């Protein structure tokens, strides 16, 4: 009980420091040889820089592990195997960016927290019994001054201590530009910062060979990065990255490789904060480790997040990593990938182990479950289906398709020996399971292991549900506009004479007896007759000035080009008997203009993913010859039809496979009847209740014709008596509208 209480108190002290609440100074039971934190001093330097000096009783072998918090801004590091001997838990400072220093005892270590007014860069260096923490006012290198005049750092060597061995650029799978820098060792001090519209990477005390001092033009890689410049300043190497557009950057170092990613920033109008499209959502932190045990790094992340992290005993080795302002879950992912680790989350516990270890455990678990299934007692369960057909559900359990049993009312299938190889692979039942069904009660009987029966019940809960229905309304609009105009004439002339002895001359539109005869009236009020060619009439005046022409046969026409079904006409006949001359002239004209609109609106309701068809029309009979030579009556359909297969998407939109047809009777031919067809076949995606225009057919036919008598029809003015002009314009437009609606289940039930 005492051990649990001690751990709880230590844990509360640790959390109180990180969260900014007053710390508890708890002295742990450490040996007398433990290191002691004796004093904390702060020295202001030019340029707004600060030096925090921690005086210890014993020298430190390496710089302690540190990490940073961004909200609120803090720097946290642990002094292992050390106790707080300053007698204070909180030391107010209020100089520059440093507000205060907090020290708390947690188990076998002392945790030091530097409370800042804003995030800054820091650097830790060890000199004998003094730990120096350098703080910079701006984002730049953080030089650390000596603690006292007697304790000074070694003078820098003429040659750089580190070296860049390779600089490479690759394009990531998500379109990011990735700069890879291989270093001579993992102890290189790296600083990644944004400078205006560029990203600058500084390598302290690092040599850059001449072969790498150049500009890389990476425009053709199609990433946000345009150029990468490698420069050298005395004993410091620098890489300047020039991106374009909207971007975000992240950098991390594993062992001797530094990776800088420049990712395109895809703006989402529904997000207040853009970026982080990888899905990392943890609180940001910064880590800077040099050859630290990977288990210690995982412990730091566990302390930072408050998560329960269980690390396998097989996790070992050291890691050198530098991360700045990255989500903690991304930092954990980088560490695991660099060491070949994987994790499993079970509730609030995160288990971390090598990927091979997880794979071996899961394989052994699956093998054990398979062996247990072969020995487990089978149970029988009865499932009553509401909407699914028992036969179809039986086939699904066996891994088959739709049923082919026709009108079967019951059936049974057992173990894995039945069915095709593909069916055995896709079956839901275990190899020992069997299923029967009763179509009359729509019930299935399943015998299998308890685990499989639970899975089948879960499947039934998912699929045995009412199928949504869709009402599809189609509207077909056919608009037509017809205009026709015609002008024609009939003209004829007849004349007979005797140019010489025994000679008779006739001129007219047709051959025949052109002899002329007439009988004058004997009295002033009497009536006489005359005949001229194929026409004749009566004479009512002895002076031959008053007569009536009537047709005794076909008129003598030299031009017979009238308008069919003329709506108006003008006729003229002129006879001069003294000259044996008869003239006939008739003009006819037609002009017609018609407009029409036909609206057809078929509607059909069908279940989701079920084909439906609705049609209305006539069957037109026609005669056709059989193989024996006899005549038979056949039929052709001329109908308006709508065929549709709807599919409702999860976002309540509708995908439809459509076949809309509008047929009508055409002309009658010797071989049968022609059918005029108008048809649209397509697939569309439409919102629920929205209307879409599938397409339209616009047809315009213009005809101009002239029928004439050669030569005479080409004469000016007079030629109109010898020709017929026709003009016709037909315009037809077809539009098809589709409106699908998902039927509400409540309305459907009512």
TrEMBL record:
Keywords for this protein: Cell outer membrane, Membrane, Protein transport, Signal, Transmembrane, Transport
A Gene Ontology cellular component where this protein is annotated is:
cell outer membrane
Q: What is its main location?
A: membrane
- Cross-referenced Pfam families, in alphabetical order? AMIN, Secretin, Secretin_N, type_II_gspD_N0
SMART domains for this protein: STN (SM00965)
Q: Which domain of life is it from?
A: Bacteria
BP term (GO), one: protein secretion
Where does it localize? Cell outer membrane; Membrane
| Secretin/TonB short N-terminal domain sequence ranges | 307-355
Xref: PANTHER family? DNA UTILIZATION PROTEIN HOFQ, PROTEIN TRANSPORT PROTEIN HOFQ
Q: Which family does it belong to?
A: Belongs to the bacterial secretin family.
Q: What is this protein called?
A: Type IV pilus secretin family protein
Q: Which organism is it from?
A: Microcystis aeruginosa DA14
Kindly list the organism's lineage: Bacteria, Bacillati, Cyanobacteriota, Cyanophyceae, Oscillatoriophycideae
């Amino acid at each position: 009980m005492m051990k649990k209480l001690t751990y709880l108190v230590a844990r509360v002290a640790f959390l109180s420091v990180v969260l900014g609440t007053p710390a508890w100074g708890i002295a742990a039971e450490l040996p007398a040889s433990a290191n002691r934190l004796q004093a904390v001093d702060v020295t202001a330097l030019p340029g707004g820089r600060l030096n925090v000096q921690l005086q210890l009783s014993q020298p430190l072998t390496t710089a302690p592990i540190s990490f940073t918090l961004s909200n609120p801004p803090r720097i946290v590091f642990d002094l292992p195997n050390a106790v707080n001997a300053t007698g204070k838990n909180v030391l107010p400072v209020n100089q520059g960016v440093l507000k205060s220093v907090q020290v708390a005892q947690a188990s076998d270590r002392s945790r030091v927290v530097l409370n800042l007014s804003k995030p800054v860069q820091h650097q830790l260096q060890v000199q004998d019994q003094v730990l120096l923490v350098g703080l910079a006012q701006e984002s730049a290198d953080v030089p650390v001054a000596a603690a006292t005049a007697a304790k000074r750092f070694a003078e820098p060597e003429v040659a750089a201590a580190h070296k860049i061995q390779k600089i490479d650029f690759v394009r990531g799978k998500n379109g990011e530009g990735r700069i890879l820098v291989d270093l001579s060792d993992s102890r290189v001090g790296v600083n990644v910062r944004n400078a205006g519209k560029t990203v600058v990477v500084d390598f302290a005390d690092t040599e850059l060979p001449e072969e790498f001092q150049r500009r890389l033009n990476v425009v053709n890689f199609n990433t946000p990065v345009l150029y990468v410049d490698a420069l050298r300043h005395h004993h410091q190497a620098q890489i300047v990255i020039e991106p374009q557009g909207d971007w975000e950057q992240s950098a991390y170092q594993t062992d001797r490789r530094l990776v800088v990613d420049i990712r395109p920033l895809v703006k989402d109008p529904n997000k207040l904060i853009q970026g982080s499209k990888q899905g990392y959502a943890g609180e940001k932190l910064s880590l800077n480790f040099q050859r630290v045990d990977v288990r210690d790094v995982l412990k730091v992340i566990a302390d930072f997040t408050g998560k329960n992290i269980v690390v396998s005993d097989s996790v070992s080795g050291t890691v050198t990593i530098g991360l700045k302002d990255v989500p903690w879950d991304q930092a954990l992912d980088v560490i695991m990938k660099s060491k070949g680790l994987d994790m499993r989350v079970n509730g609030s516990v995160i288990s971390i182990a090598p990927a091979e270890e997880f794979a071996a455990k899961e394989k052994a678990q699956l093998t054990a479950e398979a062996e247990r299934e072969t020995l487990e007692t089978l149970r029988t369960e009865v499932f009553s289906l509401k909407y699914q057909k028992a036969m179809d559900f039986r086939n699904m359990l066996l891994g088959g398709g739709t049923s082919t049993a026709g009108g079967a009312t019951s059936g049974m299938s057992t173990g894995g020996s039945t069915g095709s190889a593909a069916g055995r692979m896709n079956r839901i039942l275990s190899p020992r399971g069997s299923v029967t069904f009763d179509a009359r009660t729509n019930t299935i009987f399943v015998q299998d292991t308890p685990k499989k029966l639970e899975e089948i019940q879960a499947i039934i809960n998912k699929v045995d549900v009412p199928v949504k229905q869709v009402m599809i309304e189609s509207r077909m609009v056919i608009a037509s506009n017809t205009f026709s105009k015609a002008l024609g004439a009939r003209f004829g002339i007849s004349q007979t004479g005797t140019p010489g002895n025994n000679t008779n001359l006739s001129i007219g539109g047709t051959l025949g007896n052109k002899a002329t005869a007439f009988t004058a009236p004997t009295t002033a009020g009497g009536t006489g007759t005359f005949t001229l060619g194929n026409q004749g009439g009566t004479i009512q005046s002895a002076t031959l000035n008053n007569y009536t022409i009537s047709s005794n046969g076909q008129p003598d026409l030299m031009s017979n080009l009238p308008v069919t079904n003329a709506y108006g006409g003008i006729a003229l006949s002129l006879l001069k008997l003294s000259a044996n001359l008869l003239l006939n002239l008739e003009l006819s004209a037609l002009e017609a203009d018609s407009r029409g609109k036909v609206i057809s609106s078929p509607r059909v309701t069908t279940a989701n993913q079920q084909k439906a068809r609705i049609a209305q029309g006539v069957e037109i009979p026609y005669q056709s010859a059989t193989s024996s030579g006899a005549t038979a009556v056949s039929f052709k359909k001329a109908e308006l039809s709508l065929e549709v297969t709807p599919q409702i998407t999860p976002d309540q939109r509708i995908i439809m496979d459509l076949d809309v047809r509008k047929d009508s009777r055409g002309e009658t031919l010797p071989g049968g009847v022609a059918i005029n067809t108008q048809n649209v076949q397509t697939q569309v995606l439409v919102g629920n209740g929205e209307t879409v225009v599938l397409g339209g057919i616009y047809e315009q036919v213009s005809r101009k014709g002239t029928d004439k008598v050669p030569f005479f029809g080409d004469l000016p003015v007079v030629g109109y008596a010898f020709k017929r002009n026709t003009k016709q314009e037909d315009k037809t437009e077809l539009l098809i509208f589709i409106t699908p609606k998902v039927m509400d289940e409540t309305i459907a039930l009512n």
